[in-house]
Amino acid sequence: MARMHLPFPSRPFLRLLLVVAAAAPMCEAAVPAIIVFGDSSVDAGNNNVISTVLKSNFQPYGRDFFGGRPTGRFCNGRIPPDFISEAFGLKPAVPAYLDPAYSIKDFATGVCFASAGTGYDNATSNVLNVIPMWKEIEYYKEYQQKLQAYLGEERANFILSEALYLVCVGTNDFLENYYSSLPGGRQSQFTVRQYEDFLVGLATEFVTELYSLGVRKVSLTGLIPMGCLPLERTTNFFGHNECVQDYNNVAMEFNGKLRKAVARMNRRLPGLRMVLSEPYDLFLQMIKKPSSFGDVRADRG
User: Fold this and answer.
1) With b meaning 16 or more CB within 10 Å and e meaning fewer, what string describes 249-281?
2) Where would one find the signal peptide in this protein (predicted)?
């Protein structure tokens, strides 16, 4: 049975991304739309409508969201893309593409294709029967067509080419897949270094396919100190419930490889403007000195 890893406590992640987003003009949108791919850290509710046990459409999720209702976000309130969207002068919440309450009119300035529990590796999405990254791209292609029909090709293509694309994924590939006890898992096929390289290759393929579809502005997020996730600390019995340093080391190694891949893609793909958002160090500061960030403790989810 796979363990279900909920995202890291949301408030520090939101603070981190708010710092990044604060540079955006508040009076006028600097980008016409925010378009989101990834996992539970950015899923706005797509898992609500698929057949998976990994859902968050119940209390206490959403208690601080508009109306105090759970939306499928793995958070007590809004998630990073929501705050980033608002900081860029767009809507205060980015809707989930599969949510039947929304239509293409709502998606014109932002849409989320993310699915909690997914990863770069298709095998990761199979663990909890969630949406694989290739399917997120298929939904994006469908969205392109709907947007062109709604706004006309010229306006739609402008939005699609000038939008900011957020990609946040990777933790589940290690914690739900590689380090899980599932039979026939990736650990039987790769060393951890080989698996890091395999995932970087998949990340490169994912961004390259987005590029072929006209995407030009991308923020790719690196891994957090995943050995410090509450579940990892709770189950680290022999380590006195401290962070699992081996997992953190893998996160740092993977981020380094991803950094080089981002630089290569920026050189190789004309017009691509991609940045790597690296939350690792700031997360570690929050874990070591939670009081400096307004929290009492950082070892509970």
Assistant:
1) ebbbebbebbeebbeebbeebeebebebebbbe
2) 1-29
